[in-house]
Amino acid sequence: MESWCHTVLSEVGSPPDGSGRRSFSDHLLRVLKHSGVDTLFCVPGSAIGPLLDRTLSDVDLRLVVARHESGAVAMADGYARVTGRLGVALVTSGPGALNALPHLAVAQADGSPVLLISGAVARSRHGRGGFQEGAEDGVDVLGALGRCAKYSREIGNCHSAPQLVDNAVRQALTAPRGAAHLSVPVDMFTEEVESGEVGGKPLSVSDTFLLAGVAGVAGVAGVAGVAGVAEVARALLAAERPMLVLGNGAREALRSDPGLGKALAGFVERFAVPTATTMKAKGLFPETHPQALGVMGVGGARRAHAYLTRNPPDVVVVVGSGLGEWASANWSPALRGTRALVQVDIDPAKIGRAYPVDHALHADAGAFLRAVPTAADACAAHGPHQEPLRLRRDALKDLPGVVAEASVAELGAVPVTPQALMHHLQRWTAGIPEALVFVDIGNSTGWFTQRVAVDPPSQVHCPLGMASMGWASAAVIGAKLARPEATCVTVTGDGGFLMNATEIATAARLMVGAIWVVLDDNAFNMVRQGMDHSFPDTMRTTDEDFGLGGPNLAGLAESLGARAWRVRVPDEIPIALDGARHAAEQDPGPQVICVSVDRDEPGPFRDRNEAVGLSFRAPH
Fold it and tell me: Which of 18, 194, 520, 560 would you call most buried, defined as having the most Cβ atoms within 10 angstroms of its Cβ?
C-alpha cells in the first residue's frame, strides 16, 4: 500500500507556487488533520515554538495547553479512547519529553493510539551541550521514550521526514494499536519538505485485518481461518460450563460497531454462554445481561469469581487479552479450562504468554466476534446440543449477582463508606444515557469494579496496563473535549487526584464540564492497607507515613476554577451527583465532588494483598 499520509496533499492543494514543497510544520499538521485530528494537547516550550506558531494560526485545529506534560499525554489518550482517532500531544525538549513518559507508557500498554511529538535541540547544536539536549550526547530522550512506544524516531532531514511521519501515524493506528513518538529538532519545523500527491486513505483496522481474522492466519495448534472459528463454535456448543472472556483488545471493534455488540449479546443469550470481561474491558459486554459474569480478575466481580472457583469452566475462550496478572486473578489455574483454552488476539506475542493454549487464532477481535455467531448457528443446525444448553442455562442459577448490594449499615454510616458511594454512583450512572467513566488506580478501582454495573453505550476506561495513578484526572478532560454531549466522570482516590489536580485549571479555562468524584480518605490507602496486611506486626504504628497531610481538596479545586461539592454524610451523595451534572451542563466548567470516606473500611483487594505478600518471599 502506498503511503496514505501523502493523500492529504492532493485534497488540500499545493502551496501557491505549485512547487509541492511546504514547511515541515505545515506538512505535519495537514497529515494529522487528514487522519481526523482536530485537537492537539501541549505544554509549550521553545523547542516546539515554530510548530505552535503554525498551530495557533490554523482555524481547523484546537490547541489545548495543559499544566504538565503527563497531563497533556493523558488528555490525548482520553481523546483517543472515546473517539477511536489518533490522540496527539506536543511537548518541548529534555525534561518536557521525559515528563511525558509515564502516560505515554499507559497508552502503549493499553493499546491507545497516541502520537507524542517532542521538540529537540537544533541539529547544528547536537553534541555541543545544547540547552536541554536530548540526543545521544545528552540525556537519551529518544532511547528512553522508545522503550515505552511502538515507534520512536528522530526526524533528521527533509528527505525522510514525510515518510517518518507516515510511519508514526500508521504504527499508532494499526492493530495492535499503541503509542508512537517523533523527536523533531527545532530547526526542522521550518525546513521545507517535498510532499508527493498520491491516492489512498487512512489505514483502518477493519481494512487490514478483517480477512486475516476470518480467512486464514494459522494458529498455534493448526487451527486456521473459517475452520478455526467453526471449531471454536463447536467447542462452545458442546461445553457444559463454557466461559467467554472479552479483553481490551475487543474495545475498538465494539466501540465502532454498536451492531456488533447487539449481535454478540444475542449470541450469548441464544446459546447461554457465560461472559466475563477484564477490568480494562469493563462494560464492553452489558453487566446487566443474564449471562454476564462481570469483571474477572484481581478485585473482580463476585459472580465471575464464583463461576471460576466453584466448578471451573471446561472451555474458556479469551478474545483480546494477554491474561496478565490482574486480568487472570494472579494466573488462576481455573482459566486453563478443564477441556480447552482458546485465545484470540491480533498480537501474536500475547497468545500463550500466560497459559499454554489448546487453540489459537491470530485474528482481529472484531472479525472473530462477527464470525462466531454465524458459525454457532451453523453448528446448531447440524447437531443436537440441547442437553449441554440446558446445563449451561442452569450453571448461573445459584451464583451471586454481578455487583454486591450495600447493606443498611453501610448505606447509613458516617464517615461515608465506599460501598455507599458506589451504591449511589450505580443508580446515578444507570440513569445517564451515555456515561464515559475514567477510573483511576487505587482502592477506587476495586470499589467501582465490584459495586457499579455498566452497560453500553456507557464506557469505562482504566489505565491498568501500567496502573499509573493520576492518569484519569487528566484523561477525562480529553474525553469531554472530544465528546461534549456525553457525561464524562472520573472516579479517583485523593492520592491519584493530587497527582494531576492542576489540570482542573485547564478544564476551567476551556469551560470543560467534566466531573471528578474523589474518595477522600487522607491516605494512599490501597498501599496502606496492603502493607498492613503483609506486615501486621509493624505497619500499624506507621500508618501516618502513608497519609496525605489533610489537604483541603475542595478548596484546592475551587482555587483552580472548579465548583466543589463537599460530601460528609451519605444523604449528600445523590444531591452532589445530580447537582454536579446539572451544573456541568448549564454552566460548563469542572465539577469536583469530594467525599469524605472511612479509610478504615476494609478495602476491595484482599486477593491482591495476598498475592503481593507472597511476592515478597523468594520462591522455593
Answer: 520
